[in-house]
Structure formats: C-alpha cells, structure tokens
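Subject: complex prediction, re-run

Hi both,

The earlier run crashed halfway through, so I resubmitted it with identical inputs.
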Amino acid sequence: MSKEFELVVDRIKCDGRGLCAEILPERIHLDSWGYPIMTKGPIPDHLMGLAQRTVDDCPVLALTLRRVAAQKHRGR
Amino acid sequence: MSLVLLSAVVVLGILSVLRVQSAGWPRFLTVGLHRNLALMTLVFLALHILTAVVDPFTHLGWLAAVVPFSSYYRTFWLGLGTIAFELLLAIVLTSLVRGFIGQAAWRLVHWLTYAAWPFAVLHGVGTGTDAWSAWLFTLQAFCVIAVLAAVGYRFMTGSRDPLADARSSFQDAVDRREPR
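This time it finished cleanly. Structure:
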C-alpha cells in the first residue's frame, strides 16, 4: 500500500463552485465552465494539508483523497 | 459575547453561500472563519452554561442546562437558551461528520440555524439581568441588524450560481423531451 494520495473529483456531485482551485492552485485549475481539472499524479507531501482542506471545504463534498494504487502508479 | 460570535458565524455562513469575495478576501477565508468561529462559539457557550449552572444565586442545576423549560428560575427565557444550545450542538456535530452523514442530511440540519439564532437572541433579551443597559442593548441591536441584513440580502439575491441559466435551460430541454 502506497503512502501517496491523489485528489479525485466526483463529477456528478461537483457544482463548479471553484473553491478548491482557490485553496490549491498548485494542483487544481478551472476549465472555462468553472469545473476543476486536477494535475495528474500523487500530491507532494508539502501540499497534503491544503489538499485535505479542499476536501473538507468543498461545499458539495465532491472531492476525496484517494490512495494511489501501487500498480497503477507503476504503469503510468 | 456568545451572541456576538454566533451572529458573526451566521453572517459569515450567509456570505459564503452568496460567494462574496474580493482580491484581498478569497472565499476560503470566509469558510475557514465560519468554521473556526462556530467552534469558538461552542466553547464560549460551554463556559456560559458552566458559570450559570454553578452560580449559587440561581442554583440552576445541570437538568436545566439539558432539559428545556425545567428551571424554576425564568423558566421560559432560560428554556429558549437551552433549545438554542442544543440546536447549535446538533448543527456543529453534524458539520464535523458531514462526510459520513452526506450532504443532504447535513444541509437539512444546517437550516436549523435560522431557528437557533432567534432563540438565542430572545434568550439574551429575556434572561439577561442587564438586557436593557445601554451598552448591551447597542450590542444586541448591532447583532440583530447585521444578521437581518445578511438574511435579507440572501433572500433578495437568490442564487449566485453563474451556471444557473445554462442548467435551467438544459433542464427545460430535458423536460420537453420526456413529459412527466
């Protein structure tokens, strides 16, 4: 089990409020309709706190931190 | 003091719904302040209840802090405070476990704020021994005006969703296709 995490958006729940991109612009930017686009790959350690905050602050609970599957990561 | 904090929390909550922001005040600041002040409000309320319960003059006892309208001292006005505190406790606890209970349930409980805040105000006006002293009256009036202004503003502006028009026209198109 890896200790690396990635941010995952639930596209059904997401309302395009854009709060996540304000908190973590290093990893999240918004498309022209205001929906988030995540930078691929695991979140670096120094950004984990902010990543957790995007999950907690999302007004519609559309974000989760997911453990990067070891195999999937190798395959990339 | 608890009322000032609570009013600030309510106003901040409404501001975050309205997506108020500026260059120097991003929205996550509103959300963070809303959360932290809400937790601080509970701490102040705990102190308020503790000092009230151990006050030898009223000797309320713990039952009055938990069961509304059970105190012989200012039964009605004190009961309002008990109700307000229990509502706030429910609101904060559900917020802390928002991820587990789901968005819909959390939102439903969060609407109770609009019941808890007036109860808290009435509790302060009715129970406070110095409710009509000039400084406290000013403070209470300020809180009431601030919250009413925010609520009124929320009521007037409605949804600030920039995608609202696109969504409703899409929904209309869907409804036309599949008459229900």
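Chain A has one domain: 5-75.

- K.
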